[in-house]
Amino acid sequence: MDELNINNRLVRYGELIPCKTAFIDTHTPGSDQKENFTIIGSGVSENPEQHVHISIPHGFNIGAAGQPPKCNNSLHSHRTAEVFFVLSGRWRFFWGRYGNAGEVILEKGDIFNIPTGIFRGFENIGETYGMLMAILGGDDAGGGVIWAPEVLSEAKKHGLILSEKGKIYDTLKDQQIPNNENEMKPLKDDELKNFPEYTTSEVVPYYVARYLDLYSLSSETSCKVIGEKGKIYDKPGFEVEFISDKSKNNYGIYTKDVVFMPVDGYWRIKSEMFDIILNPGDTFSLPKNNKYTLEPTKPGIASIYKVIPTDDNPGSTQRK
Q1: Is residue 318 part of a domain?
Q2: How far is residue 20 from each of residues 26, 31, 158, 313, measured CA to CA in Å?
């Protein structure tokens, strides 16, 4: 494996290429300043011009959302896992048919495995530009986003139409849906009844893990965050582990591609074929069957998330 191949698996935070027109609400006031990034896999972008950094199938997708203060992501739902961890900023997540069933505020390093099948949205409530890193279940990320009806109708007022194939057409640019496609129909009342309304107490204790708790729990070995034996129980087709500067035995070999995403500090990941320093916000896809070692390069708090593919089929959120 040569250096060029390794570089094709490494995406530096400073080299992320955003798409500002990824979704149907891209012209809607309040949502028109957000940036979407697809790091591994095509994600759920509705714009075919979205740049994909790494197209190698992993069994899951890695993406990111960047938003300035007071910018929000409109209510939508997913059929497979949507996991976020905060890279920077302060974020409010809200959910329910009208976004008022429950909410939680997350800060740097906190992670949220949002239950499938509920409408959810999020907004940057910090004072500076913030960044969320995302993990989406399945190579096709569940086939796309399901939007609340109001999002589609509001987008139409600003010239955007979504086709049933999940592609955006901008009527302000004289774009029209082709004859072989139909406009996405808003969900009907009887369909909307199938989307649960979970309270905050039903979500936060089971699907949120706090950064400082994970840091404490990783003092001996890596902390399993999401998985059959994770702090957050689920089997979404991948597992998530948290590693800190205090964790021991950070080496191994995997038969599937594994992804590393630093939150704090600088990490050296090394094998016989590469020697790389990872910075916060970078994403590195470790090629399968490569024995590696991982360690922070400087004193102080350091932390990194690891995403490991499993043989579980991506689908609805599971709960004990």
Answers
A1: no
A2: 7, 10, 15, 31
